[in-house]
Structure formats: structure tokens, C-alpha cells
């Protein structure tokens, strides 16, 4: 079964065409600057060379048309006819409490995703645009929605409820939902396979560290707590997001700076985190370079980020009454050895000793703790697209 995996952002469309039987990637690429001048980037299937095609992309439907054109191209293509695409799997960020697992999209599901879109206004509408585009261009192809929030629906009430009047949960479903669930599910399953004990006895902490970052406590293969909450703003210090702050800061700053609520939320989402602290960049590569060059604010951004990771790992080790393995994944987690080194330097109380040489690697499965460490630490690359393809195949067989 050939599955087209689609991940739509507000101005991007990432795609992979995956043969679900072999799990080989037949094609992959990225459409970006949708709504502006537009372009598609992908690697040539024969030479492996990077290809960039500039094209006006007014909307996601036109972007998907360009993806289809590329897939069918005599020069760049990997299929000869659209009938070779058997199903489409879509990343959908927020499923609320409605969806605890992946589903085939029908009209009822589509409208249910619309209904929870106010909980993820930057993501769900874009995810629906991807579904719309497939329905228009490939009307006979089944669409499957794979939700970022679904993996976390196993959290107990004490973990997902806020200390607010219970009626707000009853009326408005205000609770912690968690995100990056596809990644946390994939990586935790890989981590559990590395442990020599029954699944139900395992305790794993997954650190999905990228521009957006979250940590998940996985006990017995199920999410029992996670750092992101009602929205992806809660939790760690991130690239441009503040993470946890005292909510009383909002009215105080609003008065001091003359900002309304929408403007304050924009500050917390887009101008805070490592960008806000460093004053220069949200990219950890730039923060690392500034840190090495002696930039005090870059150093402070680095320390603030890693400190928030360290605190959350400690909290989840306590919540699970122990931990067997800590996994680092996503862009920073997989590639930034300095971040991993800094985090693990605070975890000696768990019995973790860093293997300095192994930690120099990245981007592949690596054990970065020494053999005699009581708790193991690994780099485990995430593969959200493959996880989406597997879910899509399961439902469309």
C-alpha cells in the first residue's frame, strides 16, 4: 500500500510517499511560503541531489497539485499514476477529548475537527486544508486523521486537570491535552524495545526537543503525563514560546506595556523563549554559537532551556516512582550534543553517567549512557511520518 503522508502548517506542506509494506520512502519534500511566492524542495529520487522549484502557491490545494505534479513527473517522479496512491494520512494537531485514536475522515469527523480548532487555531485549520486538497484532487482516496493529542488520552485525571473550578472543565473541556503525541508514541515504543523487561513494567521519559519542545512520561507503554497542556504554549522554555509562567504576569505586563490579550498571547508564543532571552535567535545552533563566543544572553538562553528540561525529567521520574530509560529526540534532542551533555550532567542522582564519546554522535540510534548506568540514556530519532503511515495502513487495510 502506497500512503501519502501530509503535514500541513499555516504556510507549509510537508509530504512523504511511503510503501507501507517495505516502509521505504518513495518520495519526500516540502512546500513552503504558501500564500506568498512559494516553492517546493525535495531530493532527486535518482541522484539524491536537492531540487528547488519556485512556483506561485496561493493556497494548500495548489501546493498539493504541485506535489502531485512532482510525484508524476517523468524526471522526478516516483509513480506513474495517481491510482498508485492508496490512502492519505494527515497529521492533525488537536483532537480534543473527541479522538483518542486515529480515524478515517468522513463528514462527521471533519466537522468534529473543526469544532476543536479554536484549541489549536494555528494548526487545525491548516490540517483541514490538507484534507480538503486531497478530497479535491483524489476524491477516491481515503483520508486518515492521526492526532497529536491522541497518545496522551491515557493520562489520569490528576495529571490532566488544572487547579481551576471543575465546572470549567465540564463546560469548556479546559484541561491538559499534550502534543507531539505521534512522536512520543513512536519513540517510547522504540525505547521500550531496548529494555529487557515486560512492557507493563517499563518507565520511559521521552524528551522531544526542537523549536517546539515537550517531555512525556510513559509508564507501561502509556502516556501518564506530558509538559504541554491546553495549548502547545505550556511547559518548557522553547524557541519562541515562554513555557510555564505565572499567569498574573499577563495583566501586569498588559497594563505596563499597553498590550491587549491577543497581543500578549503573541508575545508569549512568538517573541519569548530562547528568542526573548537571547534577543538574537530562537535557533539552538545560533544559541550554541553565541554561548561559545561568550555572549551572556545566549548562555542564559541555553541554561534556561536545559534547566527547564532537567526539572521536568526530575518531576516525571518522581511521578512514575523511577525511570528505566530517557530518550532524546527531534532536532535539538537528536543533534545537539551540548544540550544532552548539560541535561545529563544534572541527572547523576538517577545513576546516569554520560558516555562522552558516544554523545558526540547524532541523528541515529545511539546509547549515550555508560554500560554501568542504572538508568539508560539514548538518542532515538523520531519518525512521525512513518508512525502516521502505520496508523493509516491499519485503518485502511
- Class per helix and strand makeup: alpha/beta
Q: What Rg, in angstroms, do the CA atoms define? A: 21 Å
**Main sheet?**
8 strands, mixed
Number of β-strand runs:
14
Strand order of the largest sheet: 5-4-3-2-1-6-8-7
Shape: globular
Through-space gap between termini: 8 Å
Poorly predicted runs are: none
Write the element-wise H/E pattern from the N-terminal end onward: EEEEEHEEHHEHHHEEEHHHHHEHHHEEH
Helix amount = 25-40%
The chain-level mean pLDDT equals 93
Number of helices: 15
Task: Annotate the secondary structure layout.
Layout lengths: L1 E7 L3 E8 L4 E9 L6 E5 L6 E5 L5 H13 L14 E6 L10 E2 L2 H9 L8 H14 L4 E6 L9 H4 L5 H7 L8 H13 L9 E7 L3 E7 L2 E5 L22 H9 L3 H10 L2 H6 L5 H9 L3 H24 L5 E5 H6 L1 H8 L11 H4 L6 E2 L8 E4 L4 H13 L1
Parallel strand pairs: 1-6, 6-8, 9-12, 12-14
Antiparallel strand pairs: 1-2, 2-3, 3-4, 4-5, 7-8, 9-10, 10-11, 13-14
Helix pairs in contact: 1-3, 10-11, 11-13
Structural commentary:
With 397 residues, this protein is α/β, with parallel strands linked by helices. The protein has 15 helices and 14 strands. The chain has an 8-stranded mixed beta sheet, with helices on both faces. The longest helix has 24 residues, at 296-319. It is globular, with a radius of gyration of 21 Å. The N and C termini lie close together (8 Å).
